[in-house]
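Quarterly update from the structural biology core.
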Amino acid sequence: KAVSQVRASHPDAKVSVDILADDFIDAGAYADFSLVRGSTIFCPSELEVMRIWNPTSVADWARDTAGKHGIHVAVKLGEKGSIVCNARSGDLLHVPICQVEAIDTTGAGDAFSGGLLSGLTAGEPPEIAAAMGAVSASYVVEAHGALNTARPSAAERHRRLNTVVSSIEKI
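Predicted structure, tokenized:
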């Protein structure tokens, strides 16, 4: 319902859907994908995908989900990066993390999502948007507590982005 409400008032908005599938949530409510209808990108974690859909291959699940529902998919793999499927092209890619010394991972997922959505809003394809998310998360994990995150220069952000983008691999 929320996605359709956003689309009604802002038809060109980029809508990202992230879920919570822990022991306190009825994960079965997500199984039919009704929650993601009309969204731009669906961003579950690998753990959530395994808990709810239990596929043989997370990569194949991402490709199937993107194709079947016409939305981009970015599966968050934690320190392994993300698997991204571009719904338009069908390309399935591995986007690595930005390698830094991690001090505290609190807020890394939120930073990834923020960078991802920022990239999509700027018109970037989902794999580049996911690389932007990886860069955002890299700054958060370098600090103790998300509120102590560095405010890097544009040049530093672009250097990290170029490093991540150059390491994207087709699956």
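The CA atoms of residues 140 and 146 lie 6 Å apart.
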